[in-house]
Design a protein that fits this description.
The protein is an alpha/beta fold. The protein is built from seven helices and seven strands, in the order ααβαβααβββαββα.
Amino acid sequence: MRIFIVIAIFFSVTTIILSQENSSCGTKVPLGIIPEQVKSNNLDLFENTNTYNLRLAIHIVYSQNGNDSITNENLYYKLQKLNYYMEQAGFSFYEFNRNYIESDYFANLSEEKIDSLFSTFYIDGCINVYFVPVFAHNGWSSFSYRFGVSPQGIVVINSAHETTLPHEMGHYFDLLHTDHIWIIEEIPGVLDSLYENIDRVGNCKNCDSAGDLLCDTPADPSRRMKGSLVNDNCTWNSSRIPPFDECNNNNYDPLTDNLMTTELPRICRNNFTSSQIQRMRQTLIEYRGGAA
Ligand SMILES: [Zn+2]
């Protein structure tokens, strides 16, 4: 009995630690996926200056009373900001299709309903984006099929910040959170996690197989610490002691302005790194050519 209680407490604590999501982004790497399966190889091959025009299927989800659909003004603002933030990656999006979904069931969205939503209304050849009135997170995205086959789409809550759709679009093109933690093994009493180390050279270097799998995004311990660590001036708050990495270093200097951080305030998020851009282009070319 005592062992059971200890295990139960352990799991509640680890669940709380690992589910801390300051940006309230619901996007998750499917269970069982390991870094080796989904990392990029030679990203230099995808360094080019082409602009890609990509089709969006916009799905506006609302309940029967009809008062909770996204307004045109809000929608166009979010799409304009999507293009603004994604221009640095050479991605340009245009509305190819619009679909109105009157459904009390989907207007009050939960994680359990997402696969059904994506499967029911999917329009082939487009990036399917669903604007919903109620959801537990601000956004959610599927990854490409290198993470496995799953229903495809992006969800954004109507009240989301302007950086949420570009952030989810980053996931759609296989970017991970800068503070991503890989759960290597989850068995009772053991939670074996892979953390990204700070060092970029030497034996401790693991940036291409841990964290977000990219080396030009510094190790980010945010998910292992409670509460936001970025202040209103968008500066990393180093006054709190971060956990040590696997090589006993804790002199972290994570990005605070990157679109794939989960830290608040969201207004700080505005850019992608070169490797993130190349990984998105690689994903488009190798896994998501249908949207171009
Ligand atoms: Zn996210």
